[in-house]
Amino acid sequence: MTLPRFPDLSSRTALVTGGAEGIGRAIVEAFATQGTTVAFLDLNATLGEALASDLVAAGARVVFHSVDLREVGATQEAIRALAADLGPFSICVNNAGHDERHRFDEVTEAYWDDRFAVNLRPMMFVSQGVAPGMRALGGGAIVNVGSTSWIQGAPGLIAYTTAKSAVIGFTRSLARELGPDGIRVNCVTPGWVMTERQRKMWWTPEKWAAAEARQSIKGEILPEDIAAMVLFLSSDAARRCTGQNYIVDAGVV
Ligand SMILES: NC(=O)c1ccc[n+]([C@@H]2O[C@H](COP(=O)([O-])OP(=O)(O)OC[C@H]3O[C@@H](n4cnc5c(N)ncnc54)[C@H](O)[C@@H]3O)[C@@H](O)[C@H]2O)c1
């Protein structure tokens, strides 16, 4: 698909978490295409470095930093170092997440905490890391990535769905916290998006047929479809949008 252009994004600096693969990768590429300066964080150093060097070779301003977002101190230190190099971030996309399956009866306290440390906690502390810079700039946009899995009551990943449901509450409260500083906070909630990981781990002809039957409009949802919504919410075109949840699921929930 051809992404729309948002001219104001060419003078912005964006931070994207989990940008090495999947939806995050599409978001990094989409910002790069807009001329946005992009820094992205990811656990996967091999894929992250390869993506950054490809985009830089194509003329984009892109920087990768490898970090495990479960390490709050290291993550905030990385954000400080990147902002010192690139200038403060006016856009932050809290995208990283992991939908590892687990059985309800086997969830331990440590596993539950770890799933929240991956799927929810970074949103809080990455936002805390970028907020001072956004205040200094006079405003900014934070976009948090949720999931329709909890709305559907999907079984087999209760720690993930519970953490993802909290993204909405976090978004609404943070929008109130940061609104007076001109910082908008929104949530994008994807349906089933055909990333490489989803195709490899979960896609079967039967599952896809069942999923597509539930969609009001037919056809796969691609990472670029989520990136398009993220671009819009990050841009001045969305200057009166905050505290909201935007579902991109082809009309399932
Ligand atoms: N693909 C879907 O169908 C779908 C549906 C709904 C919501 N989502 C959400 O979209 C977001 C992106 O998902 P995706 O499908 O692109 O996943 P993905 O697994 O393809 O990519 C996730 C990226 O995040 C990184 N990451 C994971 N844990 C990390 C950590 N602790 N520290 C640093 N980086 C880490 C991974 O290395 C990877 O590059 C997630 O928040 C996910 O919950 C995805």
UniProtKB/TrEMBL annotation:
GO terms for molecular function: oxidoreductase activity. It comes from the Bacteria. The keyword Ribonucleoprotein does not apply. CDD domains: SDR_c. The keyword Oxidoreductase applies. InterPro entries: NAD(P)-bd_dom_sf (IPR036291), Sc_DH/Rdtase_CS (IPR020904), SDR_fam (IPR002347). Pfam families: adh_short_C2. Keywords: Oxidoreductase. Belongs to the short-chain dehydrogenases/reductases (SDR) family. This is NAD(P)-dependent dehydrogenase (Short-subunit alcohol dehydrogenase family). It comes from Microvirga subterranea. The lineage of its organism: Bacteria, Pseudomonadati, Pseudomonadota, Alphaproteobacteria, Hyphomicrobiales.
